[in-house]
Write a structure and sequence with these properties.
Length: about 450
C-alpha cells in the first residue's frame, strides 16, 4: 500500500471510531453548541495558527488581550526573547497578607501538521454534528487555557473573588523545549514577584472517572553525539574512522534501548520507570547539488537522540557516566553535547509531593470529588513547562480536566468534543474556587517539592 492510500485508510478508521465513541460515551446537553459563546471563543482561538517552528504569536496575543479586557483581568506582555511574548493576566486577591499566588499556565504554540492527512483543515476548527471540533491545539493545549478563562468568567458572574492572587499565563515555545519562554521567565524578577505557591499546567486526557495528574516528569535530554576521524578515499579501510566510531556507539545505544524496552514488554516496569532513548537524526557525508559525494569517507559524523530519564535518585549520574564512557568516549575521538538538558545542579529532576501532606494536592482531590472523580498521580513521559517551576522550588501539577475523548495529542485529526469542553470548564471552576479561596498555611517549598524520588 502506498503512503497516500495508507493515509486514506487511517482517516476512515478515525472517522468511524470517533463516531462510535461519541454515540456511546459523550452525553448530550440541550445546548446548541453553535450558539454557545464559550465554544465559539474556543474555536476562534483554535483558528489562530501558532505553529512551530516559526509561530507568529502576534494574533494570539491580540486575541487574548481582548479576552482579558472582556473578562476584567489586568494584563501585561513580557518579552525575554524577541518575537516570543509571554502574557500574564492577573486577578488580584483580597488578602493583605501577600499569600503565595496561584498560576494557571498554558502554552500558545502548537506542533506542525500534515494538512493532507486531516479530515478537515487543521485550523478551521470545524465542528461536526456530534460536537467534535477538529483543530491542531484542541487537546494540546489551547483547550486548557480557554477552560481557565471560561471558568473565571463563571466565577466572576456569580460574584466570587479570590483571597490570593490568581495569574493566567500564556507562554511561547513549550513545544520546542520552552527555554525561551518559561525557562527565561522562571529565572526573572517578574516571576519572583508573582510569589508563586502553585502552578497548574497541562496533563493528559483521562478516562473512567479518574483524572491523571502529572506530579513530575522525566528529564528531557536532547543529546548530540559527534565522532571524528581522518577523511579518505571510499575504496579503502582505515581504523577509527568517524563513521566506524559512531556506529559502534549506535550499536551500544540500541542494545541499551532494547534492554529498557524489554522491561516494559515483559511487564516488569511501566514506561514511566525506564529510560527512553530514540534516534532522531543522522548527519554525515559531503553534500553535492544532487546528493552526496560517494567516494569520500567523512571526517565528522553526528547523530541525535531524544533521551528521557526518570526522576529517580542517582539515575542522572548513571546516565551521565554511561554517555561519557560508552556512548561517546574520548578514547574513540568522540564528543557530545546537549541542546536541552533538564536537571538540577546535582543532576536530579525535582517532583511535586502528591499526597495529603501537600495542601494543593488535597484541594485538587476535593475539587474533582465533587464530580465523582478521583486522582491518579503519574510521572509524565513527555516534558512540560512545569519542570521550570519545580526547579524553582514551586509546586506544579499537570491536569487537563477532560475525560473520555480519544487521545490524539500531536496526531492527525486532533479533536475536542464541545460538550466535554463545557463539562471540563465546570471542573476547572471548582479547582480555581478552592485554590483561590484557600487561606491556610503551606508547608515550606522543600516540603512541597522533592529533589528526586528514592524510587517510583
Amino acid at each position: 500500500m502506498n503512503s497516500r492510500s495508507a493515509c486514506r485508510s487511517v482517516v476512515v478508521v478515525v472517522v468511524v471510531w470517533l463516531g462510535c465513541f461519541c454515540q456511546e460515551s459523550w452525553s448530550r446537553g440541550p445546548e446548541d453548541l453553535e450558539q454557545n459563546a464559550a465554544v465559539q471563543r474556543f474555536r476562534s482561538y483554535l483558528r489562530i495558527p501558532t505553529v512551530q517552528p516559526e509561530p507568529d504569536y502576534g494574533p494570539a496575543i491580540a486575541f487574548l488581550l481582548g479576552q482579558a479586557q472582556e473578562v476584567g483581568l489586568a494584563a501585561r506582555v513580557l518579552e525575554f526573547v524577541a518575537k516570543k511574548p509571554l502574557l500574564v493576566m492577573t486577578w488580584k486577591g483580597s488578602s493583605q497578607q501577600k499569600l503565595p499566588s496561584v498560576i494557571l499556565n498554558s502554552h500558545m504554540d502548537v506542533v506542525p501538521v500534515e494538512e493532507e492527512k486531516w479530515i478537515y483543515p487543521p485550523f478551521a476548527a470545524h465542528m461536526d454534528e456530534d460536537g467534535n471540533i477538529f483543530a491542531r491545539g484542541s487537546q494540546d493545549m489551547k483547550v486548557v487555557g480557554m477552560m481557565y478563562l471560561e471558568a473565571i468568567r463563571l466565577l466572576k458572574a456569580r460574584g466570587w473573588a479570590p483571597v490570593r492572587d490568581l495569574h493566567v499565563l500564556w507562554v511561547p515555545d513549550e513545544e520546542i523545549g520552552g527555554n525561551d519562554g518559561w525557562g527565561k521567565f522562571a529565572e526573572s524578577q517578574e516571576f519572583a514577584d508573582l510569589n508563586a505557591g502553585i502552578v497548574l499546567d497541562e496533563g493528559h486526557i483521562s478516562y473512567n472517572q479518574t483524572y491523571i495528574v502529572d506530579y513530575g516528569e522525566k528529564a528531557m535530554w536532547w543529546l548530540v553525539i559527534q565522532a571524528f576521524g581522518g577523511t579518505g578515499h571510499g575504496s579503502i579501510y582505515f581504523d577509527n574512522s568517524a563513521s566506524e566510531n559512531l556506529f559502534k556507539s549506535i550499536a551500544s545505544i540500541n542494545a541499551f534501548r532494547e534492554s529498557q524496552m524489554n522491561l516494559v514488554k515483559a511487564g516488569i516496569k511501566p514506561l514511566e520507570e525506564v529510560v527512553v532513548v530514540n534516534s532522531v537524526f543522522l548527519k554525515s557525508g559531503s553534500p553535492t547539488p544532487d546528493g552526496f559525494t560517494m567516494n569520500i569517507q567523512p571526517s565528522v559524523v553526528e547523530a541525535g537522540f531524544d533521551v528521557r530519564v526518570p526522576p529517580v535518585a542517582e539515575m542522572g549520574a548513571f546516565m551521565n557516566k554511561r554517555i561519557a564512557e560508552e556512548w561517546a568516549p574520548k578514547s574513540r575521538n568522540m564528543s557530545y553535547y546537549f541542546t536541552v538538558k533538564t536537571e538540577t545542579k546535582n543532576g536530579d529532576v525535582p517532583v511535586t509531593i502528591a499526597d495529603d501532606s501537600n495542601p494543593w494536592w488535597t484541594l485538587l482531590k476535593k475539587a474533582v470529588s465533587k464530580f465523582n472523580s478521583t486522582l491518579s498521580p503519574e510521572i509524565a513521559n513527555g516534558a512540560s513547562d512545569s519542570r521550570f517551576a519545580r526547579m524553582q522550588g514551586v509546586s506544579a501539577l499537570g491536569i487537563t480536566a477532560i475525560q473520555d475523548v480519544p487521545f490524539l495529542i500531536h496526531s492527525d485529526n486532533e479533536v475536542m468534543n464541545g460538550y466535554e469542553f463545557l463539562k471540563g470548564i465546570k471542573v476547572v471552576e471548582e479547582i480555581i474556587d478552592l485554590y483561590g479561596s484557600f487561606s491556610g498555611s503551606l508547608p515550606s517549598a522543600r516540603e512541597q517539592v522533592s529533589e528526586t524520588l528514592s524510587t517510583l
